[in-house]
């Protein structure tokens, strides 16, 4: 019996850690449930492209500009196709958003990511972003406590970017928590289909 009691905390910790790791990266097991209520992949890409085209048009007028311009991107279902192509570290880029990021970088803007992913996933996140083709200056990731108020955390992250001397000319995300709270000249909201696409 003592040996069994000693194993219980380990089992609980393993279950909690597995669940936490799955949250931001959209676990493959959860994807079929969520995808059932979502539009087909080509529809989603078309919807994203419409918004990305607006962002591109804005950046063509805004960049290079003066000062230190920056753009901020969310990761899951904004920069990486986390829901439609779940994987641990090989999630493909959302192509229209990657094109926006590449244009911005080529025209003098610095790219930052502000995500709800946990800091313990940092190496996987950075590996995946780089492999998907993104060039960036920084990734802001959460501590466990930040998950209770993502909007507050993401707003503070953008304020920190501004405190480093950058002007955030565009902020792109698919959830209200990605965009609310200011600290960006313009925001671009990708589809989340009534909150069904986290």
Automatic annotation (TrEMBL):
Keyword Zinc belongs to the record: no
Keyword Signal attached: yes
Any matching Pfam family: Acid_phosphat_B
Protein name per the record: Phosphatase
Signal peptide interval: 1-29
Ranges that cross the membrane: none
Keywords of this entry: Signal
